[in-house]
Each structure stands twice: as C-alpha cells, then as structure tokens.
Amino acid sequence: MSALHALSLISIFWAIIHTLDYLWKPTAASVLPTVSFHVKPSITVALNKFHLRIQTEAFNAQHDSVVKRLNHRREKGLRRCISLFYDMGVVVGIFGMCIGLGTLFWLTGSSVLRIFQKLPSRAIVKRDMDQNPENFIQPIIPGVTVPWDHLPLILVAVFVCQIIHEAGHAIAGALYSVPLRSSGVSLTLVMPSAFVSFASASMHALEPMAKARIISAGPWHNLVLWACFLALGKTGLGTAILSLGWKDLSMDGRIVIALDDDSPLNSVLSVGSIITALDDVSLAGGEDRWSEYLHKSFDDIPWYGWCVPQQDSGDRSCCNDAPHPTLDHLCFDSFGAPSKTCLNPIPILSSLNPRCHLETDCDPNALCVRPSSSASILRLVVKGKSLILWSGPRHEIWEQGTDTSPVSGSSP
C-alpha cells in the first residue's frame, strides 16, 4: 500500500464520518465549531474536524460494583494483593522514569557528538563490515521503517494497549472508592485512544501514595502485558498458538503477500511466492534479514563480485550521467583497470561465473566486477523458480514480504 493509497482511504473515512454527522445532527446550525449530540442518555458523540470522541457512562455501574466488592470485609486479602501489585507499579514507574530520562540524555548527547565529531580530512579509515549502525531505539514509522501495510495492525495494537492502560487506572481507582465519571474512546486522524475520567474532588482528597498507585497503574499494566508477550515468545508458547492459524515460513524465507497493480514484478512473481535469498544473503532463519538487508546502504554491503573476461569490458558510457543506461547495459565497478565498465548484467548475475572478492581471485585475463550503486540491481532467489533480477527502488520489494502465511483460506 502506497502513501497515496493510505491518504485516500483516510480521506474517504473522514468524509463518511462528516457526512453521517451532517445527516444526523439537528437542523438548527450550531455556532460552535464542535458538534456534540447524544445518541443515548449515557453516550455522547463529539466531532471536531479530524477528532472524533465517544464518551459514555455505561460502565459506571460496573465500576461501582467493583468498588463495593473490593471494600467488602471478605475481600481484604484480594484488596491487599491488588494494592501490593500496584505498589510494584509505583516502584517500577520511578525506576522507569529515571532510566527513560537517562536514555534521553544519552541519545541527545550521542547525537550532538556525532554532529560535531569530524574525521581528519586526509585520513583513510577502514570500515568494519560487521559494524551495526542501528540506533538503540528504533522508531516505528509506516513507509520508512515498516511497510504501509503494517499501519492497520499497529493502530489496532495501540488501541488495545490503550484499553489495557485505562483499565489499570480504573481498577486502581476502585481500590480507593474513586467514582468513575465517564469513559470512552477517541480518534484523531488515524490515531485511536481510550480514556477514563474520575471525579476530581475524590482524586484531590486522596493521599499521595494512593494517587501514585492510580497514576502508575496504566503504564504498569502495559509493562506487565509486554512481559507476558515476551514470555510467550521466549518459551515458544506464542509460536505454538500462532501455528493454530498461521504457518511460520521464517526458516524458508519471505512470502510475497501483495503486489502493486503497476509493479513489473507481476509478470515474474505471484502472491504466495517464497523468496529465499537477496543477493548473497539467505533469508532462512529467525532474524529479520529481509528488512536489515533492504535498508542497508550500498556502501555497507560486503563486496562480492564476478569474474568476467577483460575483453568484455571497456565501454564506460553508461557510467556517465548521459546517456541514460538501459537494463541490458549497466555500470559495473571493478578493482582492476578500468575501474568502471558497462556490461550486460543478465548473463553475469544469472550464470555460474566464479565469485571474487579481490582481483587476484580471478584468472589473469579476467576482472572482478559487481554492479555499481547507480545500477540499483537486486537478485531475488525464488523457491521453485529461476533467479529474478530487479532494477529499481528497494522499498518496493521490502513492502511486499512477510514471514508468515495462513494455514488455510479461512484463517484471519
């Protein structure tokens, strides 16, 4: 899914919301920018441009029943256990705040240091090919660090985490008989959220430790949820649950989940095809080699080439800015003379020519060459098919692969 496609879907969604609002609201126009109307006595819907808010009192009675149960004499043990659970949340929250601030200062200092740090202009520095340039924190940005197709799943995960977060505040508030005024959900453009609202007078009357339990309960719930999922992943139980509806193909490679209608790959790939390798990198294994390799810059990829006869080299016209190179006449880098040459990539990259890393790895009458960065060539090894050569942006390949597949058509 491209950025334009995602923007179109978002625009259509909000157009439908505003159309329903126009048809639903009373005939008398409101002078206020925010439209608020009651669907039921306990539900209020408010719409303001790209912000939709639904607030309800429907869960107040259930919260009151939880308050009565926790304050009953017979439930002293349960109340003590829950209080201890949220005491742990307060302690972890304090440590987490300190660690978070320390990490923030460390990242800021590292960024400033990288900006002002300069190498000597004439120094020759050998690059470590195994160096990992990734940052400590990896942001999740659809279309940049993850494909656009992941956006719906990310939003659903954020919304579920928000509900669990707010449930923590509600349960902790019930420990101290804080009445729930309302709860609800909201949507800002595409970002969903949930909320609970307590009576402010009751909150102000609480002791500091009680307030700390209620405030830290939300993040504490999210941390416990993360720990549970981490345990599922480490013990293998999560894989067993996933195998009920999905088949793990990570040991085989990456499966093609979609192809753009205008993509040239439509003629050589189909949905369900398994890509087992990219260039010389095998995709078999649990690591995310797919994203790691496709996000690497050309200079960070280890140098492995092919031995070709010297008589095939010589032309360098395609390595210049003009004329534009064609698919059967691309620029190659070489260790020998000439340093650049134009060659047909198809017979070289799809043949069993000897591989090389140095000029001495080839015969005396051969050159060690590999496609230049300007060629943008990527080799795809597809299971059960011939080698595919792709010339174009790598992100188009990256967005269309995953490592799981439904066991049957009825699986979600």
Written description of the protein model:
This protein has 412 residues and is an alpha+beta fold. The chain folds into two domains: 1-103 and 138-242, no CATH class; 254-406, no CATH class. The chain has ten helices and 18 strands. It has helices at residues 3-24, 60-70, 76-116, 151-175, 200-204, 208-235, 237-242, 289-294, 345-349, 395-398; strands at residues 35-40, 43-48, 51-56, 180-188, 191-198, 246-248, 254-256, 274-278, 281-282, 305-309, 330-334, 340-343, 355-356, 366-371, 377-382, 388-391, 401-402, 404-406. Strands 7, 8, 9, 15, 16 and 17 form a six-stranded antiparallel β-sheet that branches. Strands 1-2-3-4-5 form a five-stranded antiparallel β-sheet. Strand 8 and strand 9 form a beta hairpin. Helix 4 crosses helix 6 (208-235). The two termini are 19 Å apart. Residues 28-32, 121-134 and 403-412 have low confidence and may be disordered.
List the helices and strands and how they pair.
Layout: H1 3-24, E1 35-40, E2 43-48, E3 51-56, H2 60-70, H3 76-116, H4 151-175, E4 180-188, E5 191-198, H5 200-204, H6 208-235, H7 237-242, E6 246-248, E7 254-256, E8 274-278, E9 281-282, H8 289-294, E10 305-309, E11 330-334, E12 340-343, H9 345-349, E13 355-356, E14 366-371, E15 377-382, E16 388-391, H10 395-398, E17 401-402, E18 404-406
Antiparallel strand pairs: 1-2, 2-3, 3-4, 4-5, 6-18, 7-8, 7-17, 8-9, 8-15, 10-13, 10-14, 11-12, 11-14, 15-16
Query: How many domains in all?
Result: 2
Uncertain stretches: 28-32, 121-134, 403-412
Overall average residue pLDDT: 79
**N/C terminus separation:** 19 Å
Bin the helical content: 25-40%
Q: Report the β-strand fraction as a percent range.
A: 15-25%
Give a short account of the largest sheet: 6 strands, antiparallel
Using only C-alpha atoms, the radius of gyration works out to 29 Å
